[in-house]
Design a protein that fits this description.
The structure is a homodimer of 325-residue chains. Chain A contains 12 helices and 15 strands. In chain A, helix 4 packs across helix 5 and helix 4 crosses helix 10. Chain A has 325 residues and is an alpha/beta fold. Chain A folds into 2 domains: 179 residues, Quinone Oxidoreductase, Chain A, domain 1, CATH 3.90.180.10; 137 residues, Rossmann fold. In chain A, strands 3, 4, 5, 6, 7, 14 and 15 form a 7-stranded mixed beta sheet that branches. In chain A, strand 14, helix 12 and strand 15 form a beta-alpha-beta unit. Chains A and B meet through helix 9 and strand 13 of A and helix 9 and strand 13 of B.
């Protein structure tokens, strides 16, 4: 089968496509013939050697895909050869074939193309786990989502809106601001023009209940100043800095919480719990059109480097998919 | 009435005793004739001007006391003149008389002296709120308590033991180590001799569920390295530094929580909720002798400066009370 190779990325500065042996599913896995896979920011780090995959995972890039089930392990239940699925992968989705734990497969929502379904698992699972489980967002709460135009941002905005929260997000351009407003945000802050702490303190004097942040660095201390009593800062990455300073006085005076998670480090069982919640609560909303995959751009496998560049330059508004024809 | 005055502390370096008008209880308050009050670390900061009391609170020092009820407000229920009580005060306990919200009064547990009862409210309420409510400590969990010999430490060790947790604490001398072992700690780390991170990683390879910390500074980053998956770092003060660095990777890889609180900043209603939990769960344990007030030393009102020095020099193992004869 064909895979996207990144091993000599450091030499060539490019991902390459080469031939390799297809994986074989174990008893709990299904083998998917990939029609489309999603690009995620951790992929950009992993190709540079900055985000080593877990020991048990494929060394090939790729955290999500859609396609046809080609083979099923002995203990697989409820999924059969020929089924159309999308799935969260532990790695290996940048390929014609990938093995996936049965628990991490989803039906493709009615009326969705393979490319649209391919970009659902990673961001919706990440957002569900962080916003609702760790962040305990509930109806009537307010949430501030940084990078509202990102793949994560689009999923987060829609999930928070679905939960009945007041949704505020930050972006860096007017174009991205319009995009997030169209997604249904209550307020969008263009942090290219405005200071988000001042904005929140002026417009939301009772402050924010939950912040979803992938920036870190100097955002961390600013985020704490935007939170009200019992507010939760949920960190899912740290594009601007891994070791921010925090003000313990802010935390103890207002009983704040700093927490966060990555999806990849979780056990199969935890991923199943999250996937099951999405199947029950969110897949019906996608099928009836209330929640959208926000597919921004689609590339062919041969254009994989262009797809990465598009994300590296932060040009995207929503998700990027790569299709294998 | 006599009160302890600290207003010219900066000039004289001493607390002084002077005469002042007694407070008058509002409808929800009781006036207590103070027999004994407890010394707490925030008092040391407040006298130096480093811990301003909330706007609504008395400017006089003192967060807890015991004594006789002398007067009751119109809306007070279940407490009458002449009752012996101990209480959490919003301030003002360093005095012959203090007004206290009715919700924050406790019966004095059977067989306890006024001086023993006076030192219960602040540390037991602080520990209950932080260990069980914010830290979610449960049976079978492990907890690391820094400063095990402090007033907070003694209460924390006993509450955690009562809950069925494995209790580890850190201290700075062998004498304090013996003291904490006698209180029933599973393990005591003398951090004058040993690195607590190495100790935990060696002796508790599955790591710690909850850490109760009042140190901050470089302890914060070390604490995070001691926590296992879903571990909670609960901060109640920061003697070594208010602005520590944190490693966001540690947090998101293990889904850690950093949180914390002070008791004083909470609403009357929150304090009531915490007090009610103690009355129900812990007061019976104090009455049957399973949990002790850990009164270390008792001073007369005229020795107030000696009492402060004893805590300032970290000589204490348990609580310090001042008695008004």
């Amino acid at each position: 089968m064909l895979i996207v190779c990144y091993k000599d990325y450091k030499v060539s500065g490019k991902l390459k496509i080469r031939e390799e042996q297809a994986p074989y599913p174990n008893d709990e896995e299904v083998l998917i013939r990939v029609k489309s896979f999603g690009i995620n920011r951790p992929d950009l780090l992993q190709k540079k050697g900055l985000y080593p995959p877990p020991a048990s995972a494929s060394k090939i890039l790729g955290l999500e895909c859609s396609g046809f089930v080609e083979k099923t392990g002995k203990k697989v239940k409820g999924i059969k050869e020929g089924d159309k699925v999308c799935a969260l992968t532990a790695g290996g989705a940048y390929a014609e074939k990938v093995s996936v734990h049965q628990w991490h497969c989803f039906n493709i929502p009615k009326n969705l193309a393979f490319s649209e379904a391919a970009v659902l698992p990673e961001v919706f699972m990440t957002c569900w786990a962080n916003i609702f489980e760790l962040g305990s967002l509930k109806q009537g709460d307010s949430i501030l989502i940084h990078g509202g135009n990102s793949g994560i941002g689009c999923a987060a905005i829609q999930l928070a809106k679905w939960a009945g929260a007041t949704v505020i997000c930050s972006v860096r351009t007017e174009e991205k601001k319009n995009f997030c407003e169209a997604l249904g945000c209550t307020s969008v802050i263009n942090i290219g023009k405005e200071d988000f702490v001042e904005y929140i303190q002026e417009k939301f004097p009772s402050k924010i209940n939950v912040i979803l942040d992938m920036i870190g660095g100097d955002f961390t201390e600013k985020n704490l100043r935007c939170l009200g009593e019992y507010g939760r800062l949920v960190q899912i990455a740290f594009l601007k800095g891994q070791f921010p300073k925090v003000d313990l006085m802010q935390i103890i005076k207002q009983r704040l919480v700093i927490t966060g998670s990555t999806l990849r480090a979780r056990s199969d069982k935890e991923k199943k719990r999250i996937a099951d919640q999405l199947k029950k609560n969110i897949w019906p909303e996608i099928e009836n059109g209330n929640i959208k995959p926000c597919l921004n751009k689609e590339y062919e496998l041969s254009e994989i480097n262009e797809a990465h560049e598009f994300m590296e330059n932060s040009m995207h508004m929503g998700k990027i998919a790569v299709t294998i024809s």
